[in-house]
Structures are given as C-alpha cells and as structure tokens.
Design brief:
Elements: E1 2-3, E2 9-10, H1 12-19, E3 26-29, H2 30-35, H3 37-45, E4 50-54, E5 57-62, H4 99-109
Length: 111
Amino acid sequence: MLSLGNGGSLPVLAFVVSSGYLPVMKHVRIADLKSHLSAYLRHVRGGRTLTVLDRHTPIAQIVPCGEQNALLSVRAPLPGAPKLHQVPLPPPLKLETDIVSLLLQERESEP
C-alpha cells in the first residue's frame, strides 16, 4: 500500500497505472466499438493500443501497424501472374482409408 498525504492509501499497482508516465491501455466494450469505430481507430492510428471487452472479459487487442514489427507483408501480384479464379485446383487426394469411419472411431474414443 502507498500512503497518500490525505491519510488514505492506495495499492501500489493502482498508483503506478494511474500516475505513471507511460500511456494506459484503453478498454472498450464491443457495442461502444461498433458505435464509434472511427474515433477508436483514430486512437489506434495515434499509436495507442485498444483492448476489446466482451462484457468485462478481454477478447482482442487492436494495435497500431508498424513496418518494423509487421508479421505479414502484402505485395502486389507478380507481372503476368494469373487471376485467382484462373489458378487450377490441385487434384483430390486419393486416400485408402474411409474418412467417415475415422471420424466415428475418434468420436467413440472420446470420454
């Protein structure tokens, strides 16, 4: 506990989160996010992380994109590459086992 000048006290973690110099992560409920998506995306564009809550449970984070930490890079197709609908599908797999019987075996073995 951290003593305050007015005779009260505060848990140390609450003091650090509310008065530290680092920005505090913003939480938003799904309904609010849907209603004010553009405003929340402006916060993310400004560099803040947004935690999405389903009731009071965190379910997702919206984080700013950064080129240095991007996990996925999107590029244009190579010149002369066929359109997606023109790419032929691979032939079906030829299996010697009946898939349905494997599924039934797995379901029967579950507790």
